[in-house]
Amino acid sequence: MTPSPTLYTVREIADTLRIHSRTAYRLIQEGKIRGIKVGSQWRVPESSLLEYIESGLQAPRSKEKDEKTGSKQLKLPI
């Protein structure tokens, strides 16, 4: 028997990414994070969340350094 995929709620996605739940909801609605609608609620497979995070890690990095810390920052496509 195949194990069922882990599905996350909008709130769990927001908590994981440390963003507001409305921002997470918008990312899902816009298709930036792939999700499925179950009734009136969104669910996001773990693989979709990992793809979104990976896309932020693979994005071209800016050569500009943060003026305050002197370090480079990765940005997720929000």
From TrEMBL:
Superkingdom of this protein's organism: Bacteria
Record's signal peptide: none
Region annotation (Disordered) ranges: 59-78
Residue span, Helix-turn-helix domain: 7-55
Residue runs in coiled coils: none
Compositional bias of kind Basic and acidic residues: 61-70
GO molecular function: DNA binding
Pfam families cross-referenced by the UniProt entry: HTH_17 (PF12728)
Cross-referenced NCBIfam families: excise (TIGR01764)
Protein name: DNA binding domain-containing protein, excisionase family
Record lineage: Bacteria, Pseudomonadati, Thermodesulfobacteriota, Desulfovibrionia, Desulfovibrionales
